[in-house]
Amino acid sequence: MRIPQASSRPSLLDRRLLAALLSLVLASCGGTEQERVDNDTLGTEQLAASVPLRLMAANITSGNLQSYDPGEGIRIFKGTKPDVVMIQEFNYGDNSATAIRTFVNNAFGTSFYYYREAGAQIPNGVISRYPIIASGEWDDTQVDNRDFAWARIDVPGPKDLWVVSVHLLTASSSVRNTEATNLVNFIKANIPTGDYLAIGGDFNTDSRSEAAFSTFSSVVTTASPYPADRNGNTNTNAGRAKPYDHVLVDSDLRAYQVATVIGGSTFSGGLVADTRVYSPIAEISPALASDSGATNMQHMGIIKDFLIPGDTTSAGVTVTSPNGGESWAGGSSQSVTWSASGVTNVKLEYTLDGSTWTVITSSTSASTGSYTWTVPSSATTAAKVRVSDASNSAVTDSSNAAFTVTTGGGGGSGTVFINEVLINEPGSDVNGEFVELVNPGSTAVSLAGWTVSDAAGLRHTFASGTSLGAGKAIVIFGGASAIPAGLTNAVAASTGSLNLSNSTETVTVKNASGTTVDTVSFSSSLTGTDGVSANRSPDASSTSTTFVLHTTLVSSRTSSPGVRASGSAF
């Protein structure tokens, strides 16, 4: 076990003084003081009782120079918002202090700290939201172009966090175990047992049964659950066949691990950040779906989240809805919700472009936790809501990711939305798949040129002259043969099929100008029942974002294309 060093550990006050002095030193060298700058901002000198901590291991360079210059990795960092990164191949520009500071500022923020080992061809390093109060490198005897980079970080609460960034050799599993043995010896000799510990990076391990994991298990936990991507794949190399990359923490920190939540998505064991399969990709904007497939990007970023005890219990706010991924109709009434502690009144604001903020209300009671808001009638995919302490703007939080505001288009007050989708057709006749759209407004909406797509591509384009009447529905079937006799408000998919997936699926409606009007992602619980549709609940409600199996609404009916769930006409 690690050797206790209680006598050498500074007190909380001493550490705060040390951090302050370090900030002054950094400022004199072009550094900046640490403060939260993203969605989880807390008030100055105020920390919540429990503090979120996101750790990331990242060897996500691309291009031909083992560098972050091409920008794909930078976008992934921006989209996933880690607090502490154990980074490999830490190269950017000419690698001068100015270039590295520019990279950190761009990818994380001007208030982040960093340590980068010197004299290495592909250096390891650490980037941190919180002050790095000590750092250095330990010799990796098996390789001559990098070492083990470590940092001691003053995270909130009574313990420090020690992190080690590693890049083990591809040579063989025995060489990697030698590296692991040497690192464990460094850790036992230098890191107090009472502090938190994380080892992260590119291990280049072919499997989780390699001896290196048994060696590491003397200081960190190597057991499951493991981080996974949107499809449940826990492997991390470019081909997604081997577990190359890891974030391993000691039992002290493991006790505080929580699910990784981004927007409306939850990853119980942490996230393998593969943008090629992440959906909806807007949750990790500005990352692009193509980023993880960039030239020479051979690894995926690995994320684990923790909720650690903070220093004190004081003021804090957290937006709970809209928190990213929602689709709200312009002109509809929606509830903005939040949680708050130590705050009397809150100020609510929204943005439609991610940068310009407009006040919803300058002050409303924080204890209510909810405010009814009339959504502006401007279509956008970049909307967010911000909640702040009305008397202290430093205590603030905004939506974790963007949400969508839809408009009916075509004039009038019509608002078109997806109401019912039959993804898993009855039997094997895929012509029976359908998507039902509803206009609950008071004016007809022209659908000419509008499109319906699934996760794989375009499935239907509405013909010129198509209109959806006020309060009416229209249904797109996979094929004309499946349209029920007498159902006049129905068309066959213009591409010849809908071809919806019976595992998970996303259906998107766009108007003639290409603006997203509504998009809904369906989990396997809504796609896996043969012949039973997924229906908005309550049925035909423009303000609801919840979908359930049709039999949950009306037990005797498996679907209701073109009519209400009860069978009555629109």
Automatic annotation (TrEMBL):
Ranges for domain LTD come to: 397-524
Q: Name one Pfam family in it.
A: Exo_endo_phos
For this UniProt entry, the molecular function terms from Gene Ontology, in alphabetical order, are: catalytic activity
Q: What is this protein called?
A: LTD domain-containing protein
